Amino acid sequence: MEERVRVAIVGSGPAGMSAAGHAASLGMSHILLEKTDHLSDTIYKYQKGKHVMATPEALKLRADFGFEAGKREQILDGWNAGAAALGVNVRYRSEVLKIEGEAGDFLLTLAGGATVRAETVVMAIGTQGNPNRLRCPGADAPQIQYQLDDPGEYIDEHITVIGTGDAGIENALGLAADEVQGNVVTILNRGTDFAKAKKANVALLMEAAAAGRITVRTETSPADVRDGELLLDTRDGQETIRCDRIIARMGSAAPRKFVEDCGIRFTSEEREAYPVLSPLFETTRPGIYVIGALAGYPLIKHCMNQGYDVIEFINGNTALKPADEDDLARLFAGVPGGRTVDEWLALLRERIAIFHELSALQLRELVFLSRVRGFRAGEVVFERNDPGSSLFAIAEGSVLVEVSPTDSAITVGIEQGSIFGEVGLISGRRRGATVRAAEDLVVVELSRTAALKLIASVPAAARAVARISIERQLLQIFGSGLTRDDVAELVEGATVEEKRAGAVVLKEGDEGNDIFIIRRGSMIVEKEIAGKPVFLSYLPAGSYVGEMAVIDGSRRTATVRAAIRSEVIRLPGEAFVRLLARKPDLLKKARTEMERRREVNDFIESRKENFSGSVDMYSQTAQFLVDRGIGEATDVLLIDETLCVGCDNCEKACADSHDGLSRLDREAGTTYAHIHVPTSCRHCEHPHCMADCPPNAIQRGVDGEVFINETCIGCGNCQRNCPYGVIRMDSVPPRKPSLLSWMFLGKGPGPGEPAKAWRKKNAGQVEQPKKAIKCDMCKGIDGGPSCVRACPTGAAIRVSPEAFLTVARLAEDR
After folding, report:
1. Distances, alpha carbon 186 to alpha carbons 48, 151, 241, 337, 526, in Å
2. Cyclic nucleotide-binding domain: from which residue to which, for each copy (predicted)?
3. Strand (E) positions, 190-263?
4. Whether residue 791 has pLDDT greater than 80
5. Within its chain, how far is the Cα of 9 from the centroid?
6. H or E segment to which residue 15 belongs
7. Is residue 375 a contact partner of residue 441, using CB atoms and an 8 Å limit?
8. pTM surpassing 0.85?
9. Tens-digit pLDDT profile for residues 605-627
């Protein structure tokens, strides 16, 4: 017999279960349709013993089922008991195949042929059944799985977890929790940030890494799945590791075909897009509502609140406000405009480009994690060289960017709907310019975590941020008075491409059609001479290549390949040629650069006959330095061993300038020919040490120096994340007597770092906590780096790679 109800709820996850529970408590005729044989399949599939968090803590829970943080099993038992007590009408093993009809009379057809009639339908089916799949050779291998039920089932295996969202981190922790299991666990993070994971989970992961239970690989992705091993694309090239099993937890997407077949429209064609919803959760098909993860709100408390709210709406209580309404009202209270929460949210989504394709629910969550701020005309939003990595979106008004450090009158405007602060977000550097309100201004300030999560979760937002950053990078690099309109065609045709370490961007002898800007990472330029590649130069982020062949129609004169894992912006050559035709100053600038590069090429060609001489040696030395990670450095300490006398004055001076603790180890490191690279910070373009610093104690200074401030808590994350071993954890030693006291009275340990015995003797009864210590380029000390000033022979030098790694230096010294 066909069952008729007022509301049919599809899916018994936290959202659907909460909806059914509230319908039952109101005495509303309902049916909860679940395709498995148990409630809440999403939570049921969590790994055994998993601790389930109840975040956000500040959010009120309104539901007929209780929910507090606890073990998976306890939560499921409580929900099962609650469903029985409320009298929820649940039908198991009832997969819905299609939904027909219209509001007031929907027909749901179930697997097996049974049907249900309902006045309204609430879809709470989630996305877990549609996981994102690996996309690399071997992606269909049998050792790959997309779900982990019981970590205890796996013993003595080499297991790789792909994905560092909450699910991936929790799976890795579970697999490495019991040493008796003997698993060797590795987790891969494509980037350096953990944008999609809760802070608590990231902290637990780093603790496990510090204890040696898990290997965390950042800037790493799978390249090829093979029998018993996994080929990785890493920052420095490809590497093979043993791998018996892969747990792929890379997120999931909506079961789009089924949802669209029900007559529901999505916000865009992107796979990760969500259905279009009204503030009452109603879809574009009247009478059908969507809640839970399918609506874009995956957190359990959010889902349960939606289940409660949607039943209230269906029951006629359309005036009910969401549980976060009071919190959002307080957030908007200090902003001029006098709008309601709904009015503000509608305005933000309408005006701000990166918010256009967010659902109402996604936007509420994002604003909940952000700040909305108002500024009067002329007020400073932030100053040049201020620390900060947040992103600003302009809801009302506009800003002026003071592009010149010496003349505040030279400005560039950014209009309503756009963003600023993206350079700090992407690079982690201090603010590059002062920004003022050009008129009364309202901005949404997204924290770095919120902004990165937005970019990672919403493709349209990622494209908008990329487009704006490309446009501004073009204007900065090419200069010559260009405007946004001038580069519009280039921006429209630009694409961002990721290049693994060693990948070829341009090949000598090929025809050239496009130009490339190095967005992130670095490149090396080589030319084939006498059958072997000769290192020509090093190109850091912000450089561009390929214009020579595009401008004069010649073939590529050299090979350009990635020194480390990098990103490049590909610009269409034809559009660039049209731009040059309109802008003679830019053409002149480009031709000047071309002539400089041709001089270097001519110099190399002239040395063919005695190639085994200085050019060959310099090329090999430069390649050695790139292979040692100099490709991502911005400032590196090098020692010329033909001049070094081993006096250790460099280390002593460093210690005397930094509380008695040396930031370098002269003897450690590697050497090629006469160039020695000691263990000292390279001040990377994108510092790995910044990737997970809880107090945000690691900053970049005005001269590019990466330093650690006094807020360091000694967690050790930076030391673990640094691939070059240049960070040490140590306690600051007691203050030494003066140099005169040592010389004339024999007090103290003398210049340099005091011996451990002296430190222990003079430290007193209280052991000082350890903190992270690294080179800061003698920030704030007159005269520059102490190590260089103290070297009596001039053996120690600090240089930027682009100034050192180029054969052009040989040409200049001819």
Report:
1. 20, 14, 10, 51, 35
2. 354-455, 478-597
3. 214-218, 221-226, 229-234, 237-242, 245-248
4. yes
5. 37
6. helix 14-25
7. yes
8. no
9. 665 555 445 555 556 666 666 66
* Packing angle of the helix pair 360-368, 300-314 (nearest 10 deg): 130
Residue partners of 761: CB distance under 8 A and separation at least 6: none
Residue 160 has phi, psi (to 5 degrees) of -110, 125
Mean pLDDT for 325-332 is 90
User: Is the pLDDT higher at 631 or at 333?
Assistant: 333
Q: Could you tell me which residues come within 8 angstroms of residue 260 by beta carbon, excluding any fewer than 6 positions away? A: 266
How far is residue 415 CA from its own chain's centroid? 26
Residue 477 tokens read as 């690099």
Measured over the CA atoms of residue 323, residue 326, residue 327 and residue 329, the dihedral's sign is: positive
CB 120 within 8 A of CB 287: yes
Determine the pLDDT at residue 144. 96
The alpha carbons of the chain give a radius of gyration, in whole angstroms, of 30
Tokens 């990622």 appear where? 462
pLDDT in tens, 357-399: 887 778 888 898 899 999 999 999 999 878 778 999 999 999 9
**Size of the chain, expressed as the number of residues it contains:** 814
Helices assigned H by DSSP within 157-228: 166-175, 199-210
* Sign of the CA dihedral running 90, 92, 94, 96: positive
d(CA 173, CA 213): 9
Number of H helices, E strands in the chain: 25, 41
Quote the pLDDT of residue 279.
85
Please tell me the predicted confidence (pLDDT) of residue 500: 87
CA dist list (Å): 341 to 188, 325, 326, 372: 40, 7, 9, 12
What phi, psi does 421 have (nearest 5°)? Answer: 90, 5
Q: Where are the beta strands (DSSP E) in 596-755?
A: 636-640, 665-672, 675-679, 698-700, 706-708, 728-730
CA dihedral sign of residues 795, 801, 806, 812: negative
Q: Could you give the CA distance from residue 384 to residue 430 in angstroms, rounded to a whole number?
A: 8
Q: Distance between CA 359 and CA 363 in Å, rounded?
A: 6
Q: Is 32 helix (H, G, I), strand (E, B) or coil?
A: strand
| 163-177, 573-587, 684-698: the lowest-pLDDT one | 684-698
Give the E-state strand segments of 308-461 in sequence order: 371-375, 380-382, 391-396, 399-402, 411-414, 419-420, 434-437, 441-446
| 660 C-beta neighbours (distance < 10 Å), count | 21
Distance (Å, rounded) from C-alpha 634 to C-alpha 682? 6
Work out the mean pLDDT of the chain and round it to a whole number.
85
Tokens of 303: 């889902």
Extract the runs of DSSP E, i.e. beta strands, from 641-716: 665-672, 675-679, 698-700, 706-708
SS3 147: coil
10 Å Cβ neighbour count for 497?
A: 13
The structure tokens listed for 556 are 């590529």
Tell whether the model's pLDDT for residue 716 goes beyond 90: no
Q: Which of 409, 698, 685 is nearest to 566 (CA)?
A: 685
Sign of the Cα torsion 311, 317, 322, 323 reads negative
Q: Where do the DSSP E strands lie in 325-473?
A: 371-375, 380-382, 391-396, 399-402, 411-414, 419-420, 434-437, 441-446
- How far apart CA 234 and CA 499 sit, in angstroms, is 11
Q: Is the dihedral of CA 501, 502, 503, 505 positive or negative?
A: positive
State the pLDDT at residue 762.
65
Residue for token pair 């029985």: 84
Which residues have CB under 8 Å from 238's CB, separation 6+? Answer: 223, 231, 232, 500, 501, 502
- The 3-state DSSP class for residue 425 equals helix
